[in-house]
Amino acid sequence: MDPIESIDYDGFETFNGNNTHVDHGWKKVVYPKRNRKQKPTDQASNGGVSGKNVNVANGDNVFRSLEEQAEDRRKRILAAKMAAVDVEDDDEPNGSRSNVYGDSDDEIAARNEKKKAEEEETKKKKKPKKEKTPKVSLPEAAAKIDPSNLEAFLIEASEAYASQPDIQLMRFADYFGRALSGVSSVQFPWVKMFKESSLSKLIDVPLSHIPELVYKTSADWINQRPVEALGGFVLWAFDCILTDLAAHQGGGKGGKKGAQQPPSKSQVAIFVALAMVLRRKPDALTNVLPTLRENSKYQGQDKLPVIVWMMAQVSSQGDLSVGLLSWAHNLLPVVGNKNCNPQSRDLILQLVEKILSNPKARAILVNGAVRKGERLIPPPMFEILVRITFPASSARVKATERFEAVYPLLKEVALAGAPGSKAMKQVTQQIFTFALRLAGEGNPVLAKEATAIAIWAVTENVDCCKQWDNLYKENLEASVAVLKRLVDEWKDHSVKLSSSPSDTATLNRTMKSFRLKNEEAITEGRANGSLYKEADKSCKVISGRLSRGSGCLKGTAITVMVIAAAAAVLSSNPEVTAELKNLVDSLELHQYYNPIITAIKN
């Protein structure tokens, strides 16, 4: 690299003709070798042109090109920066400038804050004051409802949504929502009421405040809606209530003590509309009972008061059958659960006590024990009821006495039905199965009631003996208890057991089968030998009593068979002949059959 020379200036201006130079104390840097003349050989190679001139000429061209490129780049960069500034101005509503102009972050933030404050102040000045809705009580708001206006509204809604009954019902609820919008949660604190009030006080809430003509207009309109749509409305209304309940519970946990929940202007309207639907169309509830029973979102102790209130609406207007059916199918299992708390148990008992307190309850419920093919208290629910009413002495609670008070009538309903019908035979067999099982669980109080139920099932349907024969060994202790009680109470049950020759023969065959099982177990020396011996004694007594009455029975049976045989021969009807053979088989009169037929033919 060429050595660098420096020339000092004295810092004063130097005048040379028209040129003026001001150095201000700076030094000029020069390269000595570049100022030297090129060698002759260099000049020759350059065609007689000095190297200095060539370098200058080439240098001018090179630097001019570089300067042009640099200028282009500078223009492009400047244009890009200007475009970026425009974009930032568009994106920033507060009009803050970009740092391209050198503003600091603090200055930009200060301008933005000032701009926001000015805008908020402007909004506050322009925002009109919200008018407060006057608070009114439920009776006051309900009294202002015009029945004729309601009727006109419902007619219009029915015509506008003729093919959409679900929307019609939503419009129905919306009408009461607007009519009762002034009733706040303070005026209708339903969560507190349901938690602190007894069922007798809650049944008529809130319909007790609705004018009679308004209720009648609504009920007549509801009666024309399909049950399926009404069932859907019941679930929708229940969901709305549970949503409000969750809001109250959430506010109670995280909010300040004593803080009020925001008013739910439509909650009272939901309760009004739901109560009207349930009272006018009880089947709307029965249609959704499986959903309420199986869907997890409807489970829980906190939801129970609303469910009980819904069932009370159904039974309060005289439809006791639907009320008891709902109670047995959906609430009895809750009581049977070990996790059921005393408050829930009390509430469930209040409902059934309210239903049974009706003077006509026994006649209505016993005669209507089966509603539309469904039993009010089916066998599985009856089993739960028996267990609850007859617990072990150590498991008794305050509610046990109340269950004992309602049990007799509920038992009568559970055992009611058309004797001899196919459906009733199936019911008796189911009842006999669980009764035999309960009789052997080691609870003396429960065993006593269970054996009584098992004997009832046998006397009601002698075919239970066949089932008993299959369950005998598995339920030996219970079978011993049933046989012993049957012997002790023979006078009370012999009339039914001997009501027909076929029933007597069936029971007699069952006793013979038991004796064979007993003899086999005793001979083999099984562990339960003493129980088999005790059972065998009872079987002998029952067989003997059946045999003593068989003489008269057989005479009657032979007479009947003679008449039947004559009819079969004379008519040559295959059906009559088949019936005759069935009679012979059931009464074990095979030795008399052929001689009688031969005599009649001759």
TrEMBL record:
Compositionally biased region (Basic and acidic residues): 108-123
GO CC terms of this entry: endoplasmic reticulum; Golgi apparatus
Taxonomy, superkingdom: Eukaryota
Region called Disordered, residue ranges: 1-67, 86-138
Biased segments, Polar residues type: 41-58
UniProt cross-references to InterPro entries, sorted A to Z: TMEM214
Name under which the protein is recorded: Transmembrane protein
Organism encoding this protein: Brassica carinata
